[in-house]
Amino acid sequence: EVIDSNEKKQLEEWTNKRCGEVLFDSTKDNWSQNTSVFDSKVMNKSNLMFVIEDTKNNKFGGYITSTINQCNNSTWITDQNSFVFSLKSNGRINGMMKFEIKDKSYGYLRCSDMNHPILSYPGFEIEIGRKSRQDETITRHYDLCTNYHGYKNPLTGRTGKFELERF
Length: 167
What we know:
Elements: H1 5-15, H2 38-42, E1 48-54, E2 58-64, E3 83-89, E4 97-100, E5 108-109, E6 117-121, E7 124-127, E8 147-148, E9 151-152, E10 164-166
Antiparallel strand pairs: 1-2, 1-10, 2-3, 3-4, 5-6, 6-7, 8-9
């Protein structure tokens, strides 16, 4: 299961929405460089929750309410209601935490070019690169938030690359 019942309850409280179907699962769906189905799965959808698990037992992500109406390398979607969250932090944060975005004048989801940040907000950048053809289990990701309200690197515990387990 992508999220457990407690995580689901918390996400529903934060979003005032019921969690629905899983649109894309990196353990089942193709996300290779030239054949990824990610774009088609999120196109014309709104209220999207992106849940990411890394190999260090961190579970985090972002929420975007805006409808994804185009996917290309230059599509940036600004969303005043977006936020980033941590569901599991490998002991750094006690419980689950929602990180409000202070400057909501920009923040984006870029779906087609997954070699650039898929989610980016002031203070947070989560990058999910397409699955490598050479090594099908490693990809590059970034958590560039170094200090948020006293939490150092709250999403993954460090800056720079992390290894994806699932998104």
